[in-house]
Write a structure and sequence with these properties.
This protein is an alpha/beta fold and 362 residues long. It is built from ten helices and nine strands.
Length: 362
């Protein structure tokens, strides 16, 4: 068994090494989005095969079998030699925690330090209590014997020369769950995405890829994490995860609609006194008016700043977007530790953007 465990651990190291080597490709291409399970991701690893045994009769002839004798020439076989390499693809299941660890190591991401005042109280504990009732699987043998011994001594029936103790049903004691409050840091992440006409399919795919990897990292940092998805054009809506990853829309752009809806969600469901709040907005930088941009700056400075650990704005380059919004944010809110703006020119820029967003450890 130890040999098997050692070999399995060695294989896992090989898998980790291959994932680390191709991490940038996985992040930029987004091929993992369709392979997400409940707790893990199925990752295809070309040119990596795991040897295994096939049990049962072997219909093929092996070494030293079949026709021919000693000294006969070996038949090289018919057919032309191929030029293409064989395609060997092994799919391995990797947990989100393992994926996040690899991402953090490769990008040098610091562990997030939650704000101390933002902690939820949750029920927890261990089987440290004692009860007179309970399932037999939780019977406490020592305490049961102790009760029987005490009763035998008090009744005068205990003989030290023949210390026979037989517990009765009344003597049985059971381990009981002792409830206590545990302090658990919890967080909520708001992903806001522009789905207007100027955001093409490629830009939306970039946003979804980046959101997937940031989500994996944040989940590794918090025991409890809630995610809210918001999409907007001229009007904002809260949607589920599946809609966020597959929605195709068009229309005008009013960024303040998403910021106002995000504030409403935070105040109604995730008060800043109890939650670590993260908000990330992705757009091509095209807003419908300078006045609405001023409204966004006011919302960020006066409303989001006291509520969030971090607000990240990612601007995805688009042939139809002006790219002006990032310039306006940088000019109005420069040097703010709670605000990070990032420019994502193409899929290759996702890795650098993730590091910009999460590299502060907030």
């Amino acid at each position: 068994m130890q040999r098997i465990e050692h070999d399995h651990a060695r294989f896992r190291d090989i898998v980790r090494g291959r994932i680390r080597k191709d991490l940038k490709k996985y992040v930029s291409q987004g091929e993992l989005l369709g392979r997400v399970g409940r707790h893990s991701v199925s990752i295809p690893l070309p040119q990596l095969d795991l040897p295994h045994f096939h049990y049962g009769p072997n219909p093929k002839s092996g070494v030293g079998q079949g026709e021919g004798g000693e000294g006969d020439e070996v038949d090289e076989g018919a057919g032309q030699a191929g030029e293409e390499a064989g395609n060997h693809v092994l799919e391995v299941e990797v947990s989100f925690a393992e994926l996040a660890k690899i991402l953090g190591e490769e990008l040098g991401l610091p562990r997030i330090q939650p704000k101390g005042r933002k902690e939820l109280r949750t029920s927890g504990g261990t089987y440290t209590g004692i009860s007179k009732v309970g399932p037999e699987s939780l019977r406490h043998t020592r305490r049961t014997f102790k009760e029987a011994l005490k009763k035998s001594i008090l009744s005068g029936g205990y003989d030290p020369r023949k210390p026979l103790i037989i517990p009765s049903p009344e003597d049985r004691r059971y381990r009981a769950w002792k409830v206590k409050d545990l302090s658990v840091s919890s967080a909520v992440v708001l992903y806001m995405m522009d789905v207007s006409g100027s955001m093409g399919k490629e830009q939306k795919e970039i946003v979804r890829n980046q959101a997937f990897w940031m989500d994996a990292w944040l989940r590794s940092q918090y025991r409890s994490l809630e995610v809210v998805y918001i999409v907007h054009d001229a009007v904002a809506h809260v949607v589920d995860r599946d809609t966020f990853y597959h929605l195709r829309e068009s229309g005008g752009t009013k960024i303040s609609s998403a910021y106002e809806l995000g504030l409403k969600v935070i105040d109604e469901k995730f008060p800043a006194a109890e939650w670590n709040v993260y908000a990330f907005h992705f757009s091509d930088g095209d807003n419908w008016s300078a006045r609405d941009t001023e409204r966004c700056v006011t919302l960020l400075r006066d409303e989001y700043q006291p509520r969030v650990n971090l607000f990240g704005y990612g601007q995805v380059k688009s042939a139809y977007g002006s790219g002006q919004f990032k310039k306006d944010l940088d000019g109005a809110l420069t040097g703010q530790p709670w605000l990070v703006t990032s420019e994502i020119n193409d899929r290759e820029g996702i890795v650098a953007s993730i590091k910009e967003f999460l590299g502060r450890g907030r």
